[in-house]
Every structure is written in C-alpha cells, then in structure tokens.
Amino acid sequence: MSWKTVVILLVVVLALGGFFYYDTYWLTPARDKAESAKGRVFTVEPKDVEAFTIKRGNETLRLKRVEGGGWELLEPLKARADRAAADDVVTSLATVRMDREVDPNPAKPADFGLDPPAAEVRLEVKGKKDPLVLLVGGKSPTGAWVYAKEGGKTAVMTVSEVASRDVARPVADFRDKTVITFDKKSVTGVDLDVGGDQISLAADEPRKWRIVKPHAYRADSEQISDFLDKLESAKIKEFVADSPPSLAPYGLDRPATVTIWTGKDKDRASKTLLFGKGDLEKKGVYVMRAGEHEVMLVPEELWTVFPKTVAALRDKTVVTYAPDKANRFEIESPKGRVVIERDGTGWKIAAPDALKADSGAVNALLWSLRDLRASGFLGESPADVDRWLKKPDVTVKIWEEGAKDPRTLLLAASPEVRGGKPAAVAAVAGQGPVMLVDAKALGDLAKTELDLRDKSLLPAFELNDVKRARFTDAGKPFVVERSGTSDWKVVEPSRGSAKQDKVSNLVLGLKSLRWKEIVSPKGDDAPRYGLDRPEMEVSLYKADGGEVATLLIGKQEGAVTFVRIKSAPAIYAVDSQLLTDLKKAPAEVRG
Fold it and tell me: What are the pLDDT tens digits along the chain (591 aa)?
C-alpha cells in the first residue's frame, strides 16, 4: 500500500470521526431540543424562569427564584416556598403546548372565558425584558382542554386542562410546609421546657447525648435521635392563623418549647418551636415558630414523641457491655451457680460440671442482659446500691476481653409495680443508679446448668455427611441412600424414587433434635420407657459406611417420648411432636 493511499484513508477516517462527533454532540441534541419544543406556546426552558405571577380574581400569587434553586413566596404574603410545587407549576406553564387554534380573532373573548380571564400568568425569563403572558379562560365542552391565549395576541387556542388546575392551586400549596429547618447532623444541643420544667441536652458527638440540666445523667440517645428525626421531617398540616388576636385558643399563651442548637462557639445558633394544645378532631397540635406570628397545625405524632420529662429522656440501659466481647460470665441464684466460658466460636460450661453449652441459649441470655431496660429510678449513688441490694436474689458477673474485673449486675425482688407489672430492683455493683426493671428478669437471668447445657441428642454432623438413612419400624427396614449432593432414592425394601425435600428435612430434624430431660442417666429400667424393645430405630451412615448415630425411640407418655442413642446408656424425654415426621417416614418418603 502506497503512502498516498494511507493518507487518503486517514483523511476519510478523520472526516467520518468528525462527522460522528458533530452528529452525536451537536446535531442530535439540537434535533431533540427542537422536537421537544414543537407545539409549545413559549420557546423557553423552565430553568430560565426567574419569577412567575398568577393573577386570579382579586388574588395575586407571586414567587421568585432564590439562590440555590429554591423559591420564595412574595405575594399574597412573604414566606418560604415549596420548591417541588413551584418547580412543578413553572415546568407545566413554561412548556404548555397548544392543542389547536380555535379562533384567530374572536368577536367575544368572553365566550371563551377570557374577558376577563380566569387567570393571568406572567413568566419573568432570564435575558428577556418583558414577561411572557398567558391568559387562561374556561374549559372546552369536553372538559379535556381549556381556552387560552398568549398575551398581546388575539388568537384563542386550547391547551391541556392541567394549565387550569395549575393556576387554580391554593396559596397553601406553594408554601414550604417544613415545620422547623435544621440539619440534624449539626445539632449540638437541645433545650426543652414543659410546664416550667427545664431540661438541657448536649451532644459531645453525633448520636451520643447526655442530660446536663437539671442534673447530669446519661441520655437515651436513640429516643433523642428519633425525636430529632421526626422534628426535622415534620410537615405542616394547616396554616391556621396569622397574627391572631389571642394565642389562648391554641394553647400557645403558655407553650411548651423545644430549642434546637446547632454549631459551636461563635457559630452557635438556635431555633425554637412553641407547642400549644392538641386538636383531637384534626389529629394535630398547634405550634408556632419563635419570633414569628403564624399559628400552624402539625401532626399529633410530633407531640407524642416530644420528650416531656427527665425520666423519659434518661438512658434506661441497665448494664452496658459488648456481647461480642464477653468471654466469661457467672450466674448465682437460689437455683445454684453456673459459670460459662467462651470456647472458640461457641460456649462451654465450666462449673458446676464441665459440659458443652447450648450456644443459642447462651447468646439469648447475653442479649437479654444487653436489652434489659429500666422502668424507673430509685437512687443515683453507689451507697444507694448497698441500701437497695444488700442481699440480691440474682447476681450476674460479665467478663469482657481485656478487662481485669467483671461488671456485676445485682437483682432483687421488689413490692413495686410499674405499668401494671411486678417490678424488681437492679443495679451494677459499685455504681449507680438503682433501677426498677420488669420482675420477669429474675426468672430470665437465673439460668441453671440444665438451662444452658447443650441438649443435642445426636453428635454434630452436616447434611452432606449423611450418605444413607435406615428406618426400622416393627422389624421392617426402610432405607434411603443419597447420590450426588441431594439425590435421594429408596433402596430397601424395594428400589424407587424418594421425595428429596422430605428426606433432607428428616435428616435436618435429627440434627436439631433436643432433649427436654434426662430421665435415666445410666439407662436403668429400660422396659419402663419402652426401650428394651424400641418402637423404631433410625440410623444415619457416612459414605465410608461408618455410623453417625442410631436413635432408639421408645414409648410415648403424654407430650413426651422416651429415646436414647444406641451407643450411650442415658435415656431422654423429648417433645413427641418432634418425632412425628420420623415415625411417618416409611409411608411418606417414597416418591
């Protein structure tokens, strides 16, 4: 190939590339823009509208765009505007399309509702000296269109009836309905005043709050964050009255107040919202912003979450610790003493006997401790702990990784009743406060070795470890065998298909089977429990033929059935319902 050919090809490629770029980034957008503008009354973009006015009867509505893209309401009153509502109306009116021209020069514009018009719209556009004017009249006979004409022109046209709805929207639609504006992430303090009782809160860091007035206490950070979330997102239901002659009808002559502080030091600023009385019929509460004169109605839920007392704001966590860092705990109660220690990813009982623990039961206990909450406070100092809990009924000691000493939770019965429920007294040893908790905690935390030990009947195994399962009922064997990962087949007494999910569920049921009671640790008196001649045997085998376990099922007494593992003497009582599917296996497993 000669150099001249190469040059020609290069020129062609560059020309094609240039045309592609020109078409993609210039011609196509220009065509799209022209297509979208086809049929519009005005050839402007909504983003270029800087202000708009709607005159209807004796009312004038005027809004102006402000820095940041928002809007301000200027007439009939000065107020913050709802940006979404204003943008919606501006977009609709600036891009309104003509359906058809009805009359180029009507003799009686009044016949179209245009003398006078129902509304006059003025759009003030960036770079244009005079506003764009649209007169909106009455609806067409079908109701789908509305008569209109452009300012300075005589022709009457029809446009979508949406224009009629837009120009008729009430002033309240255009008002910003945010109750009080603040950024929750910037809040550093909250002051509350309810009936003259003043409470001050401080946030040393986001979502970590403390009470500083009237006394220093830990605060319930979740409750405060929830209140601030709802306050920040609250919307006004109704603008009730501007500068009413009296605030008493709204309960705002003696209001409760919340003051939100943002920033620190010289940048610190505040906003205050006043709360009056509720309106049951309207399901709201009357409020007013400090320094303003307008009464508003907000949802009653806002008053419901308003923290009204110190007790409501206090942190009600009884004992603070990290469950994932706990590595040992000890429980002492009238039922005895039990010590639990972490064992790898699970737990073990260290005393009174060395046993494997039920990790689910232990973790549930740890979460119960973490979630224990106070329903009241009896005292604040360590001396109060000695006074109220000198002889505790239940003591729980918790050791965490890296901690030398445990946290010790003390609980004792109490004659107190809170919320219609019996209460107990609780505190962390050596520190206040002394709290009231649900008396149910005494039973929930007084766990024994039996409550916390592992009650698994079969040794640990996984579903894929089981290659064969044998069910022997009245001396008749029924055997299923797995090939692949989950393809089970019947191999005795005759070959055939098996219900895959049914077999898998039976094996998993055996894996999770738990006993309720050890009725005979040494297996004495087997005939008493029907285990000298079991009603059924269930055996699981590995791929190499080794036995996972064999479960012998004896007789049933009421809600329990007696069983034992063939390789061990102990006899157990289990919930009879857990064995129902096993007993039906020979009849229901075959596919």
Answer: 566 665 666 766 666 666 555 555 554 444 444 445 578 999 899 999 999 999 998 999 999 999 888 999 999 999 999 999 999 999 999 999 999 999 999 999 999 999 999 999 999 999 999 999 999 999 988 888 999 999 989 999 999 999 999 999 999 999 999 999 999 999 999 999 999 999 999 998 877 899 999 999 999 999 999 999 999 999 999 999 999 999 999 999 999 999 999 998 888 999 999 999 999 999 999 999 999 999 999 999 999 999 999 999 999 999 998 888 999 999 999 999 999 999 998 999 999 999 999 999 999 999 999 999 999 999 999 999 999 999 999 999 999 998 889 999 999 999 988 888 999 999 999 998 999 999 999 999 999 999 999 999 999 999 999 999 999 998 899 999 998 888 999 999 999 999 999 999 999 999 999 999 999 999 999 999 999 999 999 999 999 999 999 999 999 999 999 999 999 999 999 999 999 988 888 888 888
DSSP symbol at 459 = P
Q: Where are the alpha helices (DSSP H) in 238-394?
A: 301-304, 310-313, 359-371, 382-388
Quickly list DSSP for 450-486.
Answer: HHHB--BSSPP--GGG--EEEEEETTEEEEEEEETTT
Contact assessment for residue 468 and residue 481, using Cβ atoms and an 8 Å cutoff: yes
Which residue type, as a one-letter code, is found at position 47? K
Q: Which amino acid is at 402?
A: G
* Neighbouring C-alpha atoms within 13 Å toward the C-beta of 355: 17
Spatial contact of 188 and 206, defined as CB atoms under 8 Å apart: no
Those residues with Cβ within 8 angstroms of residue 277's Cβ, 6 or more apart along the chain or in another chain? 250, 251, 285, 286
Give the integer Cα–Cα distance in Å for 111 and 102. Answer: 12
